[in-house]
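Narrative summary of target 7.
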Amino acid sequence: MAARGRMSARALCALLATLATVAAARQDQILILGNSAGGQSLAEKPGVTRAEYSFNDRGRGDHIVATWKLDAAGVPIDYRAGGNDYMKAAVSESFRLADGKASWQNRAERGEKAVSGEAFYVPVNAPPEMTGVLARALLRAPGHRLALLSAGEATLEAVGPLPGDAASGTRALTQYQILIDGDPSTQIADINKLSLVMKGGRIYDPARIEQALGSAPRNPI
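Modeled conformation, tokenized:
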């Protein structure tokens, strides 16, 4: 796992992604082993984004319907989600930021915190688009850094370009990675911050690793 800065190991939330400047209404497809297994749909209304995300992996799979509002910096000030997680357990999650106070509730915790600057709430069960929301907010943020709620900090780093191909109509892209503070060697709860793992130039999905090993999926702590 990548190590950087003052920590011997950082819990890495790495997504090498195409980052648009704004989210647009669209329909995404989810593939498992090359087969269509679900999708994510995005709809825009004035000031509100709605996402519905679901997939089927041999009878398991998330189904999340979420709505959120962003401030001028692209940071969520209201987030609400419901549905079920991969193991079909019910999901009900909410977050609100108003008058300098952030409050949230999910399966892992209920909390509140005074906020003086920009701070990004990371949902426990979120549609994939929320990673894009975080990335776009980090692009705008000073130093490409943001405090996270309930704790921690995220940093956005450019990894490098992906050239386009005029013949096939493929656009040139920019790859980014999102680093989230954490050290599972000293705080085991940090393992739950992992979205993707990058090692030796390759990206691994923790859920698929757990599936291959026959271990139970991680639960928020």
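The CA atoms of residues 2 and 10 lie 7 Å apart.
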